[in-house]
Amino acid sequence: MTTRYLWTLEREGRSTRSGLDTVEKIISIIVAEDVPGAMSADWVVSFMRIDADQDGSAAHESPLGWTLCLQQMAT
User: Fold this and answer.
1) Rounded to 5 degrees, what are φ and ψ at 38?
2) Would the CA dihedral through 24, 29, 40, 68 be positive or negative?
3) 2, 9, 23, 41: which sits with the fewest CB atoms below 10 Å from its CB?
4) What is the dihedral of CA 6, 12, 14, 16, to 10 degrees?
5) Cα three-residue angle 5-51-32, rounded to 5 degrees
6) Helix ranges, 1-75 (H)
């Protein structure tokens, strides 16, 4: 099975995006949305996966006005 994540991307002044996708797809969405930050999109998602709670959830709140939440759904 493929691991998928329920994700939500919130940004100041823009509509919220969400979905159920693989890590690779989430990274491509972050890149396409041109989310500002000090790290590349793949680093943000990788660190979130490492820091995830025991239930597989993680959140990253950027001081640059956006928040990404992930919840692992299946393996």
Assistant:
1) -85, -20
2) negative
3) 2
4) 20
5) 50
6) 23-32, 41-50
What confidence tens digit (pLDDT) does each residue in 26-57 have? 888 888 888 887 567 677 777 777 777 778 88
Prediction pTM value: 0.80
Name the one residue in this structure whose structure tokens are 């820091």.
51
Contacts of residues 45-49 at CB distance under 8 Å and 24 or more positions apart, as own/partner, are: 45/70, 49/23
Structure tokens at 8: 């939500």
**Residue 56 and residue 36: Cα distance in Å, rounded?**
25
- Rounded Cα–Cα distance for residues 70 and 73 (Å): 9
Tokens read off for 54: 């025991």
| Strand positions, DSSP E, the chain | 4-11, 14-21, 57-62, 66-74
